Amino acid sequence: MRLIGSLTSPYVRKVRIVLAEKKLDYKLELEDVWAQPQDQATSPLGKVPCLVLEGGEVLQDSRVIVEYVDTLSPVGRLIPEKGRERAVVRTWEALSDGLLDAAILARLEATWPGRNDGQRSQAWIDRQLGKVRASVQTMSTSLGEQAWCCGLYLSLADIAAGCALQYLDFRFPEIDWRSRHPNLARLSDKLALRPSFQATEPPRA
Q1: pLDDT tier for residue 74 given thresholds of 50, 70 and 90
Q2: Whether the Cβ atoms of residue 59 and residue 5 lie closer than 8 Å to each other
């Protein structure tokens, strides 16, 4: 399998962590979606990640990819097969990805070189960051004092939440989510000790 993506994308990181936790081999092909035109055969939307399977089929979107990857190995099942537990895990993933969507929109509005300062909308940035803060609050309330987001073991919920929270550390250090939500900080710090998270930490340079 070939995974097309970047080292700084939190969505790509989520897929890489799932592949590592499932102990599956793949080849990472780096692609900067902003610096070069995309191969429309593999990425018609100009987004990463894309997973190219051995037969040439291409899977789009991190949520689709991780669901497929979880079926490839019985090692450490990350998504429950059915029922309420599955819905809860996927809801955590949707909330975490939604947080990332809002954070990335805010960052693009603030930093995209295609606009000058007079063209940027602070109201839009504030609206997106409001979604980020509301999502973090919901995650904190849902986690409570549990060791993991869902049940007694690591699941995709924890991986998705960890990628989202650590993206805030990476790109939005001014957001003081850790002191306000120490339960999420403990979860994030615990995840950061796992080899899969350590191997996929984005470069700081």
Answers
A1: confident
A2: no
**What's the angle, vertex CA 38, arms to CA 35 and CA 43, rounded to 5?**
135
**CA of 54: how far to CAs of 3, 23, 57, 96, 131, in Å?**
11, 17, 7, 29, 39
Q: Please determine, for residue 35, whether its predicted confidence score (pLDDT) is greater than 90.
A: no
Question: What is the C-alpha to C-alpha distance for residues 13 and 193, in angstroms, rounded to an integer?
Answer: 15
Number of domains into which the chain is organized: 2
pLDDT tens for 131-152 read 999 999 999 999 999 999 998 9
Structural Rg of the chain based on CA atoms: 17
Residues 134, 170, single domain; the answer is yes
Q: Report the C-alpha gap between 153 and 188 in whole angstroms.
A: 15
Residue 113 lies in a domain: yes
Residue 100: strand, helix, or coil: helix
Amino acid at 84: R
The predicted pLDDT at position 41 comes to 66
Range(s) of the domain holding residue 43: 2-70
Residue 100 phi, psi dihedral angles, 5° rounding: -65, -40
Same domain membership, residue 120 and residue 19: no
Instruction: Answer yes or no: are the C-beta atoms of 167 and 103 closer than 8 Å.
Output: yes
3-class SS at 5?
A: strand
Q: Mind listing the pLDDT tens digit for each residue in 153-173?
A: 999 999 999 999 999 999 999
202 part of a folded domain: no
